[in-house]
Amino acid sequence: MVKTYRHESLLGFFKGMSFPIASIAVVNSVLFGVYSNALLALTATSHQERRAQPPSYTHVFIAGCTGGFLQAYCLAPFDLIKVRLQNQTEPRAKPGSPPPRYRGPVHCAASIFQAEGPRGLFRGAWALTLRDTPTLGIYFVTYEWLCRQFTPDGQTPSSGTVLVAGGFAGITSWVAATPLDVIKSRMQMAGLKQRAYGGLLDCMVSSARQEGLGVFFRGLTINSARAFPVNAVTFLSYEHLLLSWG
Ligand SMILES: CN(C)C(=N)NCCC[C@H](N)C(=O)O
């Protein structure tokens, strides 16, 4: 934090924000929409009926994985641009210094498109899919399990339970996702750094050889600190919206 502040001032902490904000509504709609509909198809019960007849954890897991798989493809180009902008550490507008490689998200998307073609925008999408498919299954199973532990049978979980269960579901999913998240980000940066990896496995092996196994958990603490409030609010919004509109 101190280094980022010194080098790039407060603005450094907000680098690459506009695209995630623009994409989060779309990505979460796809995730929660696919999850709800997959659960509906698997259990033939509506959201309201599910409190009296809770779905099995296997169904929750399959529906979560389906949502995770589909959301990964919507997320891929936005995530790539975020990673590229966050890794661009030139200080802003120093007189005389060369301009940064990417002037913003649109310029970043256009440059990747020009240099690498449309497939360039999906660099790392495979790793993202591998990261999100099982971890979103874990995410929804953790949420359901925690809600059921703290809610009497047949009742709707309280807002406090939803917040805590959502927060811990976020942390659990990030614990499971961090190893692949590290690899995904390295593969997304590879196009820029002219560092060619022979694929996912090669990236994993060479990262572990050079930096040790700890590399697979880099960023986990800060990710977990972020995941708790973000996912607490996400699930509270989801439950409230379904109750009022469902
Ligand atoms: C890859 N993983 C762990 C997840 N996608 N987990 C679900 C949480 C999603 C939420 N938008 C977040 O960014 O925390």
From TrEMBL:
Q: Where are the Solcar repeats?
A: 55-149, 157-244
Please report a single Pfam family linked to this protein. Answer: Mito_carr
State the membrane topology: Multi-pass membrane protein
Give UniProt keywords alphabetically.
Membrane, Mitochondrion, Mitochondrion inner membrane, Repeat, Transmembrane, Transmembrane helix, Transport
Superkingdom of the organism of origin: Eukaryota
The terms under GO molecular function for this entry are: transmembrane transporter activity
Identify one Gene Ontology CC term for this UniProt entry: mitochondrial inner membrane
Q: Provide the primary localization.
A: mitochondrion
Q: Where are the transmembrane segments?
A: 21-44
Key word rRNA-binding present:
no
| Localisation per UniProt entry | Mitochondrion inner membrane
Q: Which residue spans adopt a coiled-coil conformation according to this UniProt entry?
A: none
Q: Which family does it belong to?
A: Belongs to the mitochondrial carrier (TC 2.A.29) family.
Alphabetical list of PANTHER family matching this protein: MITOCHONDRIAL BASIC AMINO ACIDS TRANSPORTER-RELATED, SOLUTE CARRIER FAMILY 25 MEMBER 45
Full protein name? Solute carrier family 25 member 45
- Output the lineage of the source organism: Eukaryota, Metazoa, Chordata, Craniata, Vertebrata
Q: Which gene encodes it?
A: SLC25A45
